[in-house]
Amino acid sequence: MSADRSAPTGVLVVDKTPGLTSQQVVSRVRRLAGTRKVGHAGTLDPMATGVLVVGLGRATRLLGHLMRTTKEYTATIRFGQSTLTDDAEGEVTAAAGAAGLDLAQVRAALPDFTGAISQVPTAVSAIKVGGVRSYARVRAGEDVELAARTVTVHDFTADGAAASLAPGPEGPTEVLDVSVTVVCSSGTYIRALARDLGARFGTGGHLVALRRTRVGPFGLDRACLLDPAPDPLPLLDLDDVAAECFPRLDLDADRAAGVRFGRPLPGTPLPGPLTAVFDPDGRFLALYTPRGHDAVPEAVFV
Fold first, then answer.
1. Cα–Cα distance for residue pair 289/300, rounded to 1 Å
2. Of 98, 179, 209, 298, which is the most buried if we count CB atoms within 10 A?
3. Which residue range forms the structural domain that includes residue 285?
4. Residue 85 and residue 194 in contact, taking contact as beta carbons nearer than 8 Å
5. What CATH number did the domain enclosing 291 receive?
6. pLDDT value for 2
7. Total domains, the chain
8. Which of 203, 222, 219 is nearest to 211 (CA)?
9. What residues are labeled active site?
10. 104 band by pLDDT with thresholds 50, 70 and 90
């Protein structure tokens, strides 16, 4: 019990470098922090870089709730070629070329990919099918068809474009690389947006660059690189993270005591659908949700 209490607790915002899996980042943080209780809020592909929110100690229980927030990305979509993985890591499977496609046409199509949309996740993803990751099934030679899901793209802009020739299976292909910015809900696959936009134009499309610039309130300005390793780790305090990410409710000592045991708060209106509850000393206790006229615990952190 004493080891658990002394283990570091907090949130670490990492600027993931290319080539690492999200799990490799978690393993690195475990070694640096000297604790096994580490997790992350939202996978980044090995090719991708940018914000990966990592939780340590009690903060790991907050990660699932942080994953519900909006995320922001910058990316480069290559029109003219399709790949097995919908990004540059997969082999080119078709090269229709992008002759005649320009930035104005891409911009005109983006409203159809904005708002609540139905999206089929890329087959090479971490989604489990029958208990096995979809990407593992694809790499084993299986044909995987994932069910469509509704996601929300809050903002989708095309910021610039450049035409070039890219190597293809039958020689150089004329491609158009378009830089984009996407603000979206959790669960949105930017690779799938690239694939579906390419299908719209009949050119094929895939990602050649992806950088996550924000998860909820955590942007690159608050992110650290792990090489070289920062010492000490710039952990964000769990109390501060909860106050920043959720509406706040401060309680008196009597009601805070009941929250520690996961008791409902009768006749208590909440400022949001998921509210961070604090004791009189400013310590984060729990997340509560409304139920009728009462408030009930979603997760208790003490």
1. 12
2. 98
3. 246-300
4. no
5. 2.30.130.10
6. 34
7. 3
8. 219
9. 45
10. very high
